[in-house]
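Hi R.,

As promised on Friday, here is the backbone we talked about, encoded as structure tokens. Could you run it through your design pipeline when you get a chance and send me back a sequence?
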């Protein structure tokens, strides 16, 4: 990866995750239009952090539902996702609770936790690919290498 591409990925990573991208995160952008994807990811997180987003999504249920559905593609109505929704609602209300294996106690923590997930990047890349190519992201070896960091959906401790 060239220096310009590294800088393009580094900036949103510092803004969103408060850390530089890991080597595995850099590898997953090979072959994708990094500048467009990273700008969109940054914009999405900035929108979610804005006062306007909070005002348009009042209350713990609405806010957490929108963040989980738009950021990770989770259907919160599914029985398996109800505990995730409930944990997010408690965080929204100020309780220090674990959501997706990370603790938080504020609305911004919910967004930081969701945007730090492997599936956040995967979901947004897939959505961007569908919009530009009119087909879902291919499920081939190259795509798997680009998107799959460690298999469990959470940035591993060694990648932090």
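Update: got your reply. Pasting your designed sequence below so it's all in one thread:
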């Amino acid at each position: 990866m060239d220096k310009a591409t590294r800088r393009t990925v580094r900036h949103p990573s510092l803004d969103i995750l408060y850390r530089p991208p890991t080597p595995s995160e850099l590898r997953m952008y090979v072959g994708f239009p990094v500048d467009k994807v990273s700008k969109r990811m940054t914009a999405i997180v900035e929108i979610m952090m804005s006062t306007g987003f909070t005002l348009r999504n009042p209350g713990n249920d609405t806010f957490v539902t929108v963040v989980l559905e738009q950021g990770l593609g989770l259907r919160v109505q599914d029985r398996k996702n109800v505990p995730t929704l409930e944990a997010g609602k408690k965080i929204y209300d100020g309780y220090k609770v674990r959501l997706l294996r990370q603790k938080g106690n504020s609305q911004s923590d919910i967004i930081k936790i969701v945007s730090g997930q492997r599936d956040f990047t995967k979901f947004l890349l897939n959505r961007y690919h569908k919009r530009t190519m009119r087909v879902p992201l291919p499920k081939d070896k190259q795509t798997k290498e680009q998107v799959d960091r460690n298999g469990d959906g959470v940035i591993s401790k060694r990648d932090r």
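One thing I noticed while checking it: Residues 3-149 form a domain with the serine acetyltransferase, domain 1 fold (CATH 1.10.3130).

Thanks again,
M.
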